Every structure is written in C-alpha cells, then in structure tokens.
Amino acid sequence: MLDYDFMRIAFCAAFLVAAVCGPVGWFLVLRGQTFASHALSHVGFAGATGALLLGFSPLSGMTLGALSAGVLMGFAGERTAGRDVMIGLVLSVALGLGALFLHFLTHAASAATALLFGDILGVSRSMLLWLLVLSVSCLAVLAFLSRPLLFASLQPELAEAKGVSIRLLDVIFLALVALATAECAQITGILLVFTLMVAPAATLLRMGLAPLVALAGTIFLAVAEAWGGLVLSWYTDAPTSFWIALIGGIVFLLTCGAQRLFGR
Amino acid sequence: MNIPALEVSHVTLARGGQVVLQDISFAVPKGSFVGVLGANGAGKTTVFRALLGLEPLQSGTVTVQGVPVHQGNPKVGYMPQMRKLVGGQLTGWSMVAAARKGQKWGLPWCGRPGRAAVDAALEAVDAQDLAKKPVASLSGGQRQRLLLAQTLLDDPSLLLLDEPLASLDPARMRETAARIHALAQARAMTVLMSAHDINPLLGLMDHVLYLARGKALLGTVDDVITTEALTALYNAPVDVVRAGGRVFVVAEGGGAALQPHDCTGGHTHA
Q: Going edge to edge, which strands form the sheet with B6-15?
C-alpha cells in the first residue's frame, strides 16, 4: 500500500489535516459553533468553484472564501440577532453561487464530486506543501490562543472582566475554523467536513478529560480515524470519506455506550 | 484617613443610549459587606460592569483602593450571573482551572503552583468533592460554589457578586450568603453582592446599596430600608413592613411588593 507515491502523500495529507481538525473541532464543539463550520465549508465551496472558473487551484479559492467568511462572521458577533438564520442564509447563497460557477465549468461533474466528497488520492506534492504550511501555522496560532480561548468559551463575562478581548478571540478563532475547514474539505469534501471536525472532538469532549489532555487526544483520534479510513478504502475500494465518516460515527457511539455501561 | 475600598463619585451610566444611573456617589469602607438591592433593570449589573472597567462612564470617577478602575484588575474578583452552561462535560476542577490566569496567552497548562491554587480555592468553598464530577451533573448551588472558587483564584480584595443567590432554594440562599460572609471575613475582603431579596442577607450586611429610579443610596439597613428613605428614593409612596423578622418593601396603593421580598427561609436576624 505504501509502495505507491499517491498513498504516501495521502497518508501525509490525512495526518496534516486531521491534526488541525481535531483540536480546532474540540473548541468548536465546546463553543457550540459547529453550524458555523458547516456554513464556512459551503462558502469555501463557492470560493473553490469560483477559483476553478478563473483558473486557480480550488484549495486557494476555498481557503480565501472560507477565511473571509469566517472573519466577517467573527466581526458580526454573537449578538447579531438570529445568528442561525444569518448563517443559514449565507450558507444557501454560497452554495447557490457554487452551483452557478459549476454550471460554467466544462469538466463540472468530476470537479463537483471532488469538492463535495473529497479527493484525498488526488492530492499533489505542491498541495501537500500548502497543507503543511497551513497546518503548522494553524496549530501554532491555536496553541498561543488556547488558554484565553478556553476561558472565554467557558465564561465570557468573567474573561472579559479579566481583560480578555472576546471579540478579537472570536474573529481569530473563526479564521482558524475557516482554514481548518478548507483543509479538511480536501480530504473529506465539503459535505463531510463534520466527520473530522466534529466526530473526534465530540467523542473526546464526552469523556470529560482535562482540556489539554483532550486537545492532544483529539489529534490522536482524528489522525487515527483519517488513517483508518484510508486503509479501509485501500482494501475495500469504497471512498475514503465514507470510511472516515463511518469510523467517526461508530467511535462516538461506542464511547457513549461505554459511558452508559460504566455509569458516567 | 483610610482609603475606601471603593469610591464612586458623580457617576452617570448609560446602556444603549438610555441613562440608567444619574450622578450617583457612594463610598464603601474596607471590609464592608454590602447588599446591592433594586428592582430588575435598576442597574445592578451595570454598576458591577462599571466597577470592572467594562462600562464607559458618562461622567464621574470610580476608584478601587484609590486607583481608577481598569479592566483586568486582579484585585477585583467578579462572579457573573449564572448563565447557560458551556462545557458541562468538563469536570469541576477543569472549570475552575480555566479561570486561573485565563487571560494569559499560551496553552491551558496549570503547572504545580496553578494546581495548588485551584485546589486551595476549591477547599476554601468546600468544593473538593465536586472537583471530579462533570459540571453538568451538579446542582445550581454546587455550580455557584465553583464560580465562587474561581473568584478567589486571584486573591482579590474586592468581590463583586452578581445575584449569587438567584435560582437557589431558600435554605441554600441563607447558607450561601453565610458562606460568602465567612469567606469575606476570613480574607478581609470587601464584598458587593446583588440580590433581589434582602432577607437572606439580613444580619450579614454592613451596608445596603439601594438602586432605584436612576439614583443610589448607601447606608446601614436601618438607615436605608425605611419608609422615609425609600419613599424619597423612589419619589413615590413606599412602605417598609417588618414582620416575623423579615422585611417587605411595598408600594402604597397597589399593595404589590416592589420586589419579591418573600423569603420563606424561616430564619431570624439580629
């Protein structure tokens, strides 16, 4: 399996992406903002199709689209009335735009499938380098941010009183979510971003571990799930994103079941 | 001359363009236990936010131990009103630890002194037994104890507690108020504690800060909670009725209590 270059690249890409999605997802689930990440991936879709239309790489369009939407969302803030409705509106408009751009693309069908459901085996060496840069910078920022972010997520009023800038953290965090989403979409596709962003994070959060342990745990679990999906896909010929989604769901359910059994 | 723990002079506060408190002045002596009373919307939370440096002053000055207020002052401990729980899966210990130097950049790593500080804060409020439980499984009173432990982490000299008794049953109210009072005495802290009911605080308070109609009145319970003083403050006929060791503030005419001053704790007071 590892004799093939594309498989080695795929394993590297899966590692880089999952290592970011795990911890970013942990904060996302903690803060109850998973819907935002879903919407960002859809804006990223519009960006990616737009970039394809203009002759750029879909990853650059996806990153740019999701990033600008994330920053705007952060500035709009929690207090904007009907945040769910607004996010939903942005999501549908973005997806509509994506459909329009696809319409003008000549090789629409294969591009659409790759964007929607991911194409990890199609990751090129240059893309891998991009993923490396994105992952390292995301993790560095998150490490720098995680302490005040945890405080502000759990107790915004108290954190504000202690001198934490809630708005700034909101914006930076959503920018991180946007980058992680764009990366994740390379592997799982925009429709299955939840499988790496939310499933490992939700599993770890349920275990009630200390934050630092849980953050490390999400990296481990997300990478394990992504690699597991790759391996299973190799032996079964079913798509990688299907296996990652399935493993994520099963692990989460098993954790819930185990907790029931052991009475927590 | 002693510097007061807190001095507010000629302060005007507004929220959303509306003046909430107009030209209020009061000084709280060191070590005083102050009950902050007033109807909903009278400005209790706004005053606390101003004391934390979070609310811009339209006019006037606020000083804490002679120093003008500023955001992030470690000498001021704050316990916000209880809100929707975030991260209920985390243990009580993790929840309290998140507030320990939570404003610093970096990883949420405690280190040995940090862990000792969290343990000590939990011990101070008798909450060691809550440390290992997920916060979502705790009762309102138990969660209050964790929040109180958080305020103690920085070893503050002024404690601002926003409705710490809300959503507690009457017996717990008295117990919680007494616990806070004992802590304040032991650590020589000045406490401002807002409440919608005066009765659980009777006998513990040194002073009352009463907010109504944009004004503030500070004094002892016997000076402030009187028919004359509150009538002047509300600028409307108000009766203070004392019955069975409890106090009721009642508007004349309608007979409806201005605040739900009906505590069924069955306690007595000095």
A: B18-28, B6-15, B59-64, B67-68
Q: Name residue, tokens 């606020």.
A: B62
pLDDT in tens, B53-70: 888 898 999 999 888 988
- Cα dihedral: A203, A205, A209, A215 (round 10): 90
| Domain edges within chain A | 5-261
Q: From the centroid of its chain, how far is CA B106? A: 31
CA distance A153 to chain B (A): 7
Cβ density class A202-237: b for 16+ within 10 Å, e for less = bbbbbebbbbbebbebbbebbbebbbbbbebbbeee
Q: Which one of A31, A147, A205 has the shortest CB-CB distance to B102? A: A147
- Min Cα distance B135 → chain A (Å) is 10
Would you say the C-alpha torsion A83, A88, A91, A92 has a positive or negative sign?
negative
CB-based contact A157 B91, cutoff 8 Å: no
Per-chain mean pLDDT for chain B: 84
What is the spatial distance between Cα B43 and Cα B214, in angstroms, rounded to a whole number? Answer: 8
| Residue A143, pLDDT above cutoff 60 | yes
The ipTM value here is 0.85
Res. A232: pLDDT tops 70: yes
Yes or no, beta carbons of B105 and A151 under 8 Å apart: no
At A182, which amino acid appears? Answer: A
Q: Residue A177 in contact with residue A63, Cβ under 8 Å?
A: no
Distance of CA A88 to the CA centre of its chain: 18
Tell me the CA distances in angstroms from B175 to B180, B200, B229, B265, B266, one per residue in order.
9, 9, 29, 10, 12
Q: Tell me the C-alpha distance between B117 and A170, whole Å.
A: 28
Contacts across the A-B interface (CB distance below 8 Å): 96
User: Coil, helix or strand for B67?
Assistant: strand
A216 at interface of B, judged by CB pairs closer than 8 A: no
The answer to whether residue B88 scores a pLDDT higher than 80 is: yes
CATH of domain A5-261: 1.10.3470.10
- Using only C-alpha atoms, chain B has a radius of gyration, in whole angstroms, of 19
Residue the block writes with tokens 């439980």? B133
Residue range B137-172, pLDDT digits in tens? 988 888 888 999 999 998 899 999 998 888 788 888
